[in-house]
Amino acid sequence: MRKKLIAANWKMHLVPGEARALIAALMADLGRETFTDREVLVAPAAILIPEVKDALKQSPIMLGAQNMFYEEKGAFTGEISPTMLAAYGVTHVIIGHSERRHIFGESDEMIGLKVRAALDHRMTPIMCVGETQEEHDSGRALEVVLRQMEGGLGSLSSDEAGGIVMAYEPVWAIGTGRTATPEQAESIHGAIRGAFNERFGHSPAQIVRILYGGSVNADNVDSLLSRPDIDGALVGGASLKADSFARIVRARTAK
Ligand code: 13P
């Protein structure tokens, strides 16, 4: 069985005191609950990473980053390297989020280099794919997702492929309150797993975790996570409140 992964993407929110308070409230809410069938991750803005790392001491919650550059060091003003993230104990990096693709112009090629760099530094990439509203309306969702996968995963070996995390985040569902239906998401997740099977073989396709993101909340998480190919959630807005994120962490899933 694949462990579920419930990941918070805080995006560009919170200052250090707020981040610390949110982690404290989350840890108080989840208490000593131990989940054997799921993992929990928070990805704060890069500048909050030291604060959040400290606040998470003694907690099983894992620390992620929202982005990074692919070079180790050099004249790249404003960027953060994989080495820097790894030095702070970051284990997972979100790569190719639609906001990076659409607001900051990241290409499939650049995302491929970042996925490669994350693996080279022993961090798990959470590679995001997803179609825009227009691509969705014109029936091109799957075509777009497969193209983004090809660009992002081109350098991976079969051994590496099973260890990454994919996130399907339809752009029209992000921050809009319009979640993909469990059927819509399951159909794309199944196709992503099928593409893994074709390219990397049966075993990586069975191991790889595919998260859904886009307006996940306490009310819709159970139905999404009951689908066999939906291995977790990447949560934006609803991860900024301890009670809603704790409820999402406790999602009921199919046995
Ligand atoms: P929302 O949950 O706010 O729709 O954001 C989803 C997302 O982009 C997570 O990476």
Fold and architecture overview:
The protein is of the alpha/beta class. The protein has a single domain, classed as Aldolase class I (TIM Barrel), CATH 3.20.20. The chain contains twelve helices and eight strands. The protein has helices spanning 16-30, 49-55, 82-87, 98-102, 108-120, 133-137, 141-153, 158-161, 182-200, 202-207, 221-225, 242-249, and strands at 4-9, 38-43, 62-65, 92-95, 124-129, 165-168, 209-213, 232-235. An eight-stranded parallel beta barrel has the order 1-2-3-4-5-6-7-8, surrounded by five helices. Strand 7 (209-213), helix 11 and strand 8 form a beta-alpha-beta unit. Helix 1 (16-30) packs across helix 12 (242-249), helix 5 packs across helix 7 (141-153) and helix 7 (141-153) crosses helix 9. The longest helix is centred in the last third of the chain and has 19 residues, at 182-200. It is globular and about 45 Å long. The mean pLDDT is 96. Bound molecules: 1,3-dihydroxyacetonephosphate. 1,3-dihydroxyacetonephosphate is lined by residues 9, 97, 169, 174-175, 213-216, 234-238. The site of 1,3-dihydroxyacetonephosphate has 14 residues, from strand 8.
Widest sheet, order of strands: 1-2-3-4-5-6-7-8
Summed over residues and divided by their number, the pLDDT gives a mean of: 96
* Secondary structure category: alpha/beta
Tally the structural domains: 1
Number of helices: 12
Show unreliable segments: none
- What is the H/E order? EHEHEHEHHEHHHEHHEHEH
| Outline | globular
Ligands, ions, cofactors: 1,3-dihydroxyacetonephosphate
* Biggest beta sheet summary: 8 strands, parallel, barrel
